[in-house]
Amino acid sequence: MSPILQVALDTPLHQAFDYRLPEGLGTVQPGSLVEVPFGRARQVGVVLNLHSDSAVHAHRLRDVIRVLDDRPALSADTLRLAQFCADYYHYPLGAVLLATLPPRLKNAAPFAADTPWLVATEAGRTAEPPARAKAQRALLDALRTAPQRRDSLRAQKQGRHANALVAAGWAAWASRPPDFGTADHPAPASLREATTNSPPATSEQQAALDALLPALGRFAVHLIHGVTGSGKTELYLRLIDAVLADGKQALVLIPEIALTPQLEQHFRRRFPGRRVNTLHSGLGEKDRTENWLGAPDCDVLLGTRLSVFAPLPRLGLVVVDEEHDASFKQQDGLRYSARDVAIARGKQANVPVVLGSATPSLESYAQALSGRYRLIALTQRAIRQARLPDIELVDLKHIPLDNGLTRPALTALAETLARDEQSLVFLNRRGYAPALYCPSCAWVSPCPRCSARLVLHRTSHRLKCHHCGFETRIPPECPSCGNPDLKALGQGTQRLEETLAALLPTARIRRIDRDTMRPRAWAELGEAVHGGEVDILVGTQMLAKGHDFPNMTLALILDTDGALYSPDFRATERLFAQLMQVAGRAGRADKPGRVLIQTAFPDHPLFRYLQRHDYPGYARDLLAERKQLELPPFTRQVLLRAEAVTMDAALAFLHRAAALAPDSAEVSVFGATPAPMARVANLERAQLLIQSAQRLALQAFVRDWRPQLDTIRPRIARWSLDVDPLVF
Ligand code: ADP
Ligand code: ZN
Ligand code: ZN
Questions:
Q1: Hey, is 95 helix, strand or coil?
Q2: Pocket of ligand 1, candidates 240, 270, 383: which has the most ligand atoms within 8 Å of its Cβ, to mutate?
Q3: Residues with CB under 6 A from ligand 1
Q4: Which ligand is the nearest neighbour of the Cα of 680?
Q5: Distance between CA 358 and CA 465 in Å, rounded?
Q6: What pLDDT score does 520 carry?
Q7: Closest C-alpha to ligand 1, atom 20
Q8: Consecutive sets of 10 residues in the chain, 728 residues long: mean pLDDT of each?
Q9: Which pLDDT belongs to residue 192?
Q10: What does the pLDDT read at residue 282?
């Protein structure tokens, strides 16, 4: 009898599929990847189980086409974590599993990991090839000192000898050379010293270490609330030191934008001889696959949200830096929060999870206040002289704007320039201007596919939609009335750069936003700023993150008022975090920093707390408000999103969905409404909010409800469930 495999496939169906494993295809185990027929196509799937029989009729059972034994099987840990995600996010297990794999591994095309390195094996280290095989002996000797690359061996016409050594078991092809510092390759003493070559811990860091080091080795969540510059990174590094000394691995999750080559370098320098792997969207498919395949052997995996699923059999610590950052939440497909999955993973592996932020999410902070997470506070900057900056407000009700700037703001820039210090100007709107405007008929550059304005990008002479990617040339005249005199409406970073250049002609200005930053540009920018080649940095929130520029003493914040009275209940939480972060860029070394914020609402409580650098105070205020309004984190939410060609169809789907909702005293189902961005890329979007104070009740509710949604007719273009939604 050939065994029956239960296979998870990337389909919207919440079920696994049975296949027969014909003889001679190789061995499989749970976690193996296989290629199977599905409908008229073929798919790669993951084996969940092996059975001796199936409920499917024998003549309807289909055969596995191929066992993809050219790649490792997923581990039991990975399967377990995927199962958690499938349950928690109400997403099909097969789709979860395939969503977590790097693209090249889930492609059935024969896959060969690149193995460009020839290394001596354990046996090869002591073996004595026959004396007459001179060339082999010489090559093996060389390998004992250092691995050799295939291309250089070929160039030296050593290919035949290499193959002979491999056949004898004395050498093997590897995807990368073993680094120093593993058990069989101890790092030279000179390198080891470097790992301890870090400044003595501050007293707050020491207190944190005293709490954290004894807690290694078992699951618990620790929330480090540390003001910017308080030395959180240094603290993670010391914890990682301890974990590595124990022969374990550390997983460090960082926000999408923060993964700069500098951070990677910092980790590599700090752990010389250790294997530091990275995983992020900036890597090509090939590197991503290699680093994934190499994850089981690495010491530290530094990566963005997708790395939370990487195979790490010796996991000893999970760190989530900037844990409040919205980029940890995936906004399509499997809409997971990498922070929350990291906590689930820590729990499953029984290892500690350390969350760090200067402005923790209210979700995490509430857990810490209630004692479920352990709160560790770093209230002082690590470098003694570095004081927190003074924050001043420029009241736009009394002080006029000229091209988006006030007189006091301009004066502060000029003064900073005169002192040969650097400034940062923060405007969270890229492009030249948020819209193009016709003064005669009030046409305001609508996107033909979205309920949004096309943004004016003057350098590329185009109008672009930041939501659907639509773009077009700047029209020579108003498309609606023919008026040739179109005006730029409002300020974007490009226009701000232009204004500043005109007003401060001697200043060297650099702009940072998604339009200017290519992956490698960060390193170059960092050098330029450190080298004093830049006087003013203009940019979006991209520039708020992760950089440490000692000569930056002024931060200017323009136009944040939209968020103060936004319908999005998280807008003020997010704005506060952003402003704290930008403010944290000013005055990091020995020079005092200054922050100027232009606002028409200087009396808003957010600014009062910001001026006192009082995150805990503002967090308590916001939490009190959330509690009163029964909003997260005091309730849990699930959003049912619907997209259809017409708004009527989208709403009809949601009305039907609401009618099918199970009865539950603990769960509230709100009315269906058009989404705040009602139209994107020619689809109308509507949503239905479900909310409960009881997490488990909500889970059970959705578990019963979801299968009903599949039965709704007529079908619409797309619907999805978003558990713990961040964006509405
Ligand atoms: P955070 O991540 O909290 O913003 P960092 O870890 O980046 O802070 O540290 C901020 C600055 O303080 C860095 O320049 C870092 O080198 C320095 N620093 C951190 N810990 C110490 C320490 N114990 N003694 C001296 N300098 C420190
Ligand atoms: Zn017009
Ligand atoms: Zn659009």
A1: helix
A2: 383
A3: 199, 201-202, 205, 226, 228-234, 382-383, 548
A4: 3
A5: 33
A6: 62
A7: 231
A8: 91 95 92 96 96 85 93 95 98 96 87 77 86 88 82 77 90 68 41 59 96 96 93 95 97 81 83 90 83 92 96 98 96 97 98 97 98 96 79 95 94 96 93 95 96 93 94 96 95 94 96 73 79 92 72 91 91 94 77 91 96 96 97 98 97 97 95 95 97 97 96 94 95
A9: 43
A10: 78
Query: Which ligand is in closest contact with the Cα of 378?
Result: 1
**Predicted pLDDT of residue 181:** 38
Domain ranges of the chain: 4-106, 117-174, 189-378, 390-430+492-624, 636-723
Secondary structure tally for the chain: helices H, strands E: 21, 32
Q: Which atom of ligand 1 is nearest to the CA of 227?
A: 3
Q: For residues 263 and 548, what is the distance between their CA atoms, to the nearest angstrom?
A: 11
- Helix pair angle (76-89, 338-349), 10° resolution: 130
Residue written as token pair 């008022």: 561
Q: Of ligand 1's atoms, which has the minimum distance to the CA of residue 201?
A: 23
Ligand 1: residue whose CA is nearest its atom 27: 382
Rounded distance from Cα 717 to ligand 3 centre (Å): 18
Measured by CA distance, the residue closest to atom 5 of ligand 1 is 231
Fold match between domain 4-106 and domain 189-378: no
- Ligand nearest the Cα of residue 439 is 2
Q: Which atom of ligand 1 is nearest to the CA of 321?
A: 2
Q: What is the dihedral of CA 22, 27, 33, 38, to 10 degrees?
A: 10
> What's the CATH superfamily of 4-106?
PriA, 3(prime) DNA-binding domain (3.40.1440.60)
Give residue for tokens 């239960």.
6
Name the β-bridge partners of 149. Answer: 117
Which residue is closest in CA terms to ligand 1's atom 19? 231
For residue 447, how far is its CA from the centre of ligand 3 (angstroms)? 5
Q: Are 532 and 551 in contact (CB under 8 A)?
A: yes
Residue nearest to atom 24 of ligand 1 (CA): 199
Which ligand has the minimum distance to the alpha carbon of residue 487?
Answer: 2
What's the rounded Cα separation, in Å, for the pair 617 and 610? 10
Rounded to the nearest angstrom, the distance between the alpha carbon of 463 and the centre of ligand 2 is: 16
User: Domain spanning 636-723: which CATH class is it, in words?
Assistant: alpha beta
- Whether the CB-CB separation of 568 and 538 falls below 8 Å is answered with no
Q: 390-430+492-624: CATH homologous superfamily?
A: P-loop containing nucleotide triphosphate hydrolases (3.40.50.300)
CB 179 within 8 A of CB 273: yes
Distance CA 668, CA 631 (A): 12
CB neighbours of residue 509 within 10 Å: 17
AA letter at 64: V
Cα-Cα-Cα-Cα dihedral sign, residues 191, 192, 195, 197: negative
Round to whole Å and give the CA distance between 39 and 675: 35
Residue type, 319: V
pTM for this prediction: 0.88
Ligand 1 atom nearest the C-alpha of 205 is 23
- Mention every residue, 6+ apart, whose C-beta is less than 8 A from residue 347: 219
Q: Which ligand is nearest to the CA of 678?
A: 3
- Superfamily name with CATH number, domain 189-378: P-loop containing nucleotide triphosphate hydrolases (3.40.50.300)
First to last CA, the chain: 53
The best mutation among 197, 198, 202, 234 to test binding of ligand 1, ranked by most ligand atoms within 8 Å of the C-beta, falls on 234
Dist. CA 132–CA 142, nearest whole Å: 17
Pocket test for ligand 1, best of 233, 354, 388 (most atoms within 8 A of CB): 233
Ligand 1 centre distance from Cα of residue 588 (Å): 10
Give the C-alpha distances (Å, rounded to integers) separating 299 from 176, 273, 310, 321, 659: 14, 10, 13, 18, 52
Q: Is there a contact between 510 and 536 (Cβ–Cβ < 8 Å)?
A: yes
Confirm if 304 and 336 have CB atoms less than 8 A apart. Answer: no
